[in-house]
Each structure stands twice: as structure tokens, then as C-alpha cells.
Amino acid sequence: MSIWMKLVTAVRGGANEAAEAVADNQAMRILDQEIRDADNALRKARGDLAGLMANGKRMEKRVAELTDKSERDMASARSAVQAGRQDLAEGLAARVSTTRAELERDTADLQRLRAQQQSMMQTIRQTESRIATMKREIESVRATESLQKAQSAIAATQSGVNSRLGSAMGSLERIKERQEKTAAQLEAGDELAAIESGSDLDRQLAAAGIGGSVTSADSIMAEIMGGAAPQKLEAIDSPRLPAPDKN
Length: 247
Known about the structure:
Blueprint: H1 3-25, H2 27-82, H3 86-197, H4 199-208, H5 217-225
């Protein structure tokens, strides 16, 4: 297959898919129209059946009239024979023959008409039953369609809420992270300032008990209660000169 044939096939496939998508979206509307068309066809069939039944009634009446005519002519022909009028009897016999031929033809037509009438009545009943079943199924499908649309709307709303909640949680986590980062930066700044001022080093020396005088209230009270004299710094002895020789 050439590339152009493949492209044409692809375009036709896309057109069919688009047509099927439109048909799917309009499925309920199409189905309703099809049911309306079926109802219209059923009404026409009922009208045709009514016309067929009317023709049957007229044909039954004609058959009954021809039967009565044939019987009357036969009775008259017998009377003519009894009266010695052979000529009248022969004329009546010819008319009876024509009447019976018409009666036979009309009777056959009536039988065919009755068969068509019965077949049409049966078809109409079946069609009525199918249409009624289809209408019930359509109502069920319509209810299911409405329910599924409502469920889809609820699901879409819930999805949107979950998405917004997820976005809010992400924003909250970013705010917490930024606050923790800011707190760490402030703490690091305080530590850097203490290092630069030397206070941090003094704190570390004091904690190690190195340097400085530690004067606490407890040590002073112990000194008072024990009568110990305050500690004094020892005087530094100056160098003594040698005594002069008396000799």
C-alpha cells in the first residue's frame, strides 16, 4: 500500500471515529427519534389495517349479496321449470353461473384479505409490545444516564477538592520549610555574632571553670559562718640586703 493510500485510510478512519463520537454523544437523542419513527410507522400500520378491515367488510357484504342472488335465481329457475318455462330456467341458470363465478373469485379474495389482516394484526401486536419494551428500557437507560452524570459530576468535584487540598498541603509544607530555614538562619546569625564579640569564648571558658572569679552567695555565706578571713593576696617579699660586717 502506498503512503497516499495509507493517508487516505487514516483520514477515513478518523472521520469514522469522529462520526461515532458524535453518535455516542447524541445517543439518547437518536434513540428517542428512532422510537418516534417507530411510533409513526406503527400508527401508519394501524391505519393500513383499518383500511384493510374496511375492505374486508365490503367484500364480506358483496359475498353475502352474491350468495343470496345465486340462491334466489336457483329458486326462480326451479319455479320456471315447474311452470314449463324452460327458456326462463336456462336464462336464470346462465346468470347463476356468472354469479357463482364472481362469488368464487370474491370468496378467494376475501380469504386472502383475511389472511393479510390476521398477519398484519399479529405484526402490529408484536411491534406494540417491542415498542413498549423499548420505551421501558429507554426510561431505565435515561435514569442510569442521569445517575452516572451526577456521579461523574460528584467525582469531578471531589477530584477538584482533593487537588486543591493537595495544593494547599504543598503550600503549607513550603511555608513550614521556609520558616524553619529562616529560624536556622537567625540562630546561625546569633552564634556568629557571639563568636565575633568573644562572648561565646567567655561562656565556653566559664563552663570549663577556667579564668575569672566565681563569687557566689553560697561561697560567701560559707565564709561568714566559718569565720574564715577573706582571702588576701600574699605580699611579694622584697630582696633583703646583707647585714654590714661589724669587724
